[in-house]
Amino acid sequence: MSHRELDDMLGKGWRKPAFIKNAALRWALIIGFVAYLIAAFMTIDVDWGRVYEGLDRGWAFVLAFTSPDFVSRWSDIWSGLLESIVMTVAASVVGILISIPIGLGAARNIAPLPIYLICRAIVAISRALQEIIVAILLVAIFGFGPLAGFLTLSFATIGFLSKLLAEDIEAMDKVQAEAIKASGARWMQWINYGVQPQVMPRLVGLSMYRIDINFRESAILGLVGAGGIGATLNTAFDRYEYDTAAAILILIIGIVMALEYLSGIIRARVQ
Amino acid sequence: MPVLERDDAQVWRRRTTGQSLVRWFGWLLGVAVFVYCWQLISASTTWFFVWDAPRIANDIWTRATPPKWDYITQLGRPIWDTLNIATLGTIIALFMAVPVAFLAARNTTPSALFIRPIALLVIVSTRSINSLIWALLLIAIIGPGVFAGVIAIAIRSIGFCAKLLYEAIEEIDHGQVEAITATGASRWQIMAYGIVPQILPAFAGIAVFRWDINIRESTVLGLVGAGGIGLQLSASLNVLAWPQVSLILIVILIAVMISEWVSAKVRGAII
Predict the structure, then answer these.
(1) Long-range contacts of residues B180-187, Cβ cutoff 8 Å, at least 24 apart
(2) Of A43, A142, A145, the CB nearest to B53
(3) Helix (H, G, I), strand (E, B), or coil: what is residue A71?
(4) Candidates B125, B142, B223; nearest CB to A132
(5) Domain match, B192 and B101 both
(6) Same domain flag for B213 and B261
(7) d(Cα B110, Cα B103) in Å, to the nearest integer?
(8) Which of A127, A136, A236, B226 fits as disulfide partner to A245, beta carbons 3.0 to 4.6 Å?
(9) A9 pLDDT exceeds 70?
(10) How far is CA B228 from CA B72, B92, B143, B216, in A?
């Protein structure tokens, strides 16, 4: 048996299939990406001396987590934290209430075209604008304080929740909704008995998730004067009071963890 | 099934009297909490400014239009920096998120008792703190600039990517892993040929998804001094140069839309 025949019988050795099948596209992407990386690294000028000096401070901050100082600035921390929680609760309630009608309007299988376009436009605007930029504008308009933060979070909640709710409604089971309609239900009854039961579990889950996000966002709104714990945190960093900053961060992480745990329980119950 | 006896006829009810009472008190409590929160917000709001808001908003609008178009020549470098912060931050985050995800997934963790909780703690603590706060912290440690922004984005993204990735790892098909194991593969070979091919599409999707979010977040990092277009935004806001602010906002909106479009295209091609 000649070598050629043996090779034919064995065939080529197995090779892992490439992730991107088109070879030209694959190489173009790889080369383009490497070129970009080189260009990006060239333009970032890092002051390594400054970084090296900072390592001590970084280590001091890590150490601060082992001895967080809740006590000496407790009244500031408490008022900031309360404001954050209050903003979160109020904005979540208002945001969810407003996003339900907008979500209904943004679902193509429920809403007529003009309403659909209007609602989709609202969703698009709300999603495209960063929370912190909205907060800057609202602080300029309404003045400093938690009202601007409350409005910012409500506005952001509307974009997030309406979009996901509308997608859920568009993916619902048509038969069930049609059966309610066939029984002669009015529009409200149709929504209430045909659509709502299908999307309710997901709506509850998403709302819980959004409350979680709203709290995390409320922690930074204070940086631009829109109320909440952010202002206290910023002051603590500016004064290099790492132990107070560590205490605030631990509180934020703790509350987020508690919220996540709670939302896990609630989601397990409604689904 | 709860029924109500009335005039010798049984009427179907959805809930028993006790259940209705519990729900009623739940709603009462919820409304009371919301009203209390609203009162706190209202108490720390200067209502005079709020009644004045339409005039102020109108005033800002007339100042901000038309945008100062020729300012765009100065925005090229900041946009490039923003892109670099998002991209490099995402890449660094992915490198760190992969080991964390493998340590956190139930089916790949070396020790569910000791190492998994640590990995989960890393995920939750990096996830629950906003990138702006990480940026504040890093600026205090390693000084202002693009580098602080890259690291802030990277740290913030670790938790997000690792969480989605470890959920993907936990959902893999165990049959393939078993098949590779049956060939006598070592632990690393099982990883490379049994697990990695299954999570690669999810990994690519997560990377692009997070990159999209990071573009949004890196546009505002400059507000605290961490480089990118946010620096120009905050400088323009500080000198009340509203025509420049409106131009920067338009540029940010376009950047966000492009990144969202790219991410949707790539995810559509992968999945």
Answers:
(1) none
(2) A142
(3) coil
(4) B223
(5) yes
(6) yes
(7) 7
(8) A236
(9) no
(10) 14, 18, 15, 11
CATH architecture type of domain A75-270: Orthogonal Bundle (1.10)
- The two tokens of residue A105 are 């309007």
Buried b / exposed e over A172-181, threshold 16 CB at 10 Å, is beeeebeebe
Residue bearing tokens 């178009």: B69
Q: If chain B, 271 residues long, is cut into consecutive pieces of 10 residues, what is the mean pLDDT of each piece?
A: 72 80 92 91 83 87 86 87 91 93 86 87 87 86 86 92 91 89 88 87 89 90 86 88 89 88 84 67
Model confidence, pTM: 0.84
Please list every residue in chain B whose beta carbon sits closer than 8 Å to the beta carbon of residue A257. Answer: 124, 128
Nearest CA in chain B to A213: B128
Q: Which residues pair with B5 in a beta bridge?
A: B10
As a whole number of angstroms, the distance between CA B192 and CA A83 comes to: 49
Residue of B36, B136, B150 best to disrupt the A interface, most CBs of A under 10 A? B136
Task: Give chain A positions within 8 Å (CB) of B226.
Answer: none
Q: How far apart are CA B224 and CA B133, in angstroms?
A: 9
Token couple for A27: 């190489």
| Mean pLDDT over each residue of chain A, to the nearest integer | 86
Measured between its terminal Cα atoms, the distance across chain A in Å is 66
* Cross-chain CB nearest to B34 (options A89, A132, A142): A89
Q: Are B86 and B54 within one domain?
A: no
Q: How many CB atoms lie within 10 A of CB B35?
A: 10
**Assembly ipTM:** 0.81
Say which residues have a Cβ less than 8 Å from residue B194's Cβ, sequence separation at least 6: B176, B177, B179, B180, B181, B185
| Domain match, B160 and B254 both | yes
Question: Is residue B67 one of the residues assigned to a domain?
Answer: no
